[in-house]
Write a structure and sequence with these properties.
With 241 residues, the protein is α+β, with helices and mostly antiparallel strands. It contains four helices and eight strands, in the order H-E-E-E-H-E-E-H-E-H-E-E.
C-alpha cells in the first residue's frame, strides 16, 4: 500500500509543476513567480436538435446531354419534395456535381477502352431544423428519386451553451487539482496568473453513406441521433501566496 501511494504521488507531481523557487515580483514575468501549474479538462453533452445530410441523384445515358437532362429532371423532383416538407431554400446547397464517361475494356485486347455512356451525379446538402422529422424527409427524398443519401451529421443549434458548460467543468477540475497540490505542499493558493484553453466539439461519427434503390414507396428509415459531446482543456497557472 505504501508503494502504491508513493507511485501515485510521483505521478501527480510528474503531471503538475509546483514552482517554489524565486521571490514574487510585483510586475514580473509569470515564470519569476512562485506558482502552481495545472491542467484541467471538462466535458458536457447534449441531445442533437438538428441534422445535416447529403442527398444525390445519379443518372446514366448514352450521351452527356441525355444524362444531364435525366439528372436535372430527377433533381427537380427532389427539390419539390423538400419544398413540400417545408425545407427552406436557404437550408439547401449544392455540394457536388460531376460528369464522367463509362468505359468498357475489351477482353484480351490492347485497344483503347470504349466509351459506353455517361454518368451525371448531382448532390445537395440539406439542413433539417427539426430533427424529429429527419426520417420522414429521408423517406420522401427516396420516393422522389434520390438514389444516394449519406454523410448524416447531427447538430445542436445552441452549441455555445454546451461549450460554456464544458469550460466551467474544466476550470473547476483545474481548481480542484491546484487546491490538492497546495494542500500537499503546505502553501496557500493565490490568484490566477495565466489561463490557456483548447476545445474539441466531439460530434458523433457521421453515418455511413447509404444508397437506395428507387422504389414506388421507400420505407421511412429509423434514425438514432445519440448524443453530442464537447471537451474543453485548460492550462492554468496559480500564484502561491
Amino acid at each position: 500500500m505504501q508503494r502504491s501511494g508513493a507511485m501515485k504521488s510521483a505521478a501527480l507531481l510528474g503531471v503538475f509543476v509546483l514552482g517554489l523557487a524565486g521571490p514574487a515580483a510585483a510586475d514580473g514575468d509569470v515564470s519569476e513567480r512562485r506558482s502552481i501549474t495545472v491542467d484541467g479538462s471538462g466535458f458536457a453533452s447534449g441531445t442533437p436538435d438538428q441534422a445535416m445530410f447529403d442527398a444525390g441523384v445519379e443518372t446514366m445515358a448514352a450521351t452527356v446531354i441525355e444524362a444531364s437532362k435525366q439528372n436535372q429532371a430527377a433533381v427537380a423532383q427532389v427539390m419539390q419534395a423538400l419544398a413540400a416538407k417545408g425545407i427552406d431554400k436557404k437550408d439547401i446547397q449544392t455540394s457536388n456535381y460531376r460528369i464522367w464517361p463509362e468505359r468498357r475494356h475489351e477482353p484480351g485486347g490492347n485497344s483503347e477502352p470504349v466509351i459506353t455512356g455517361y454518368r451525371v451525379s448531382n448532390s445537395i446538402s440539406v439542413l433539417v431544423r427539426k430533427i424529429d422529422r429527419l426520417g420522414e424527409i429521408l423517406g420522401a427524398l427516396t420516393d422522389a428519386g434520390s438514389n444516394s443519401i449519406g454523410s448524416i451529421e447531427f447538430l445542436i443549434e445552441n452549441n455555445e451553451a454546451l461549450q460554456e458548460s464544458a469550460r466551467a467543468a474544466a476550470m473547476a477540475d483545474a481548481k480542484r487539482k491546484a487546491d490538492a497540490l497546495a494542500k500537499l505542499a503546505g502553501v496557500q493558493l493565490g490568484e490566477v496568473l495565466l489561463i490557456s484553453m483548447s476545445s474539441d466539439a466531439g460530434y458523433p461519427m457521421p453515418l455511413a453513406s447509404a444508397r437506395f434503390e428507387m422504389a414506388s414507396a421507400a420505407p421511412q428509415p429509423s434514425i438514432s441521433e445519440g448524443q453530442i459531446s464537447a471537451e474543453v482543456r485548460v492550462h492554468v497557472v496559480y500564484a502561491i501566496q
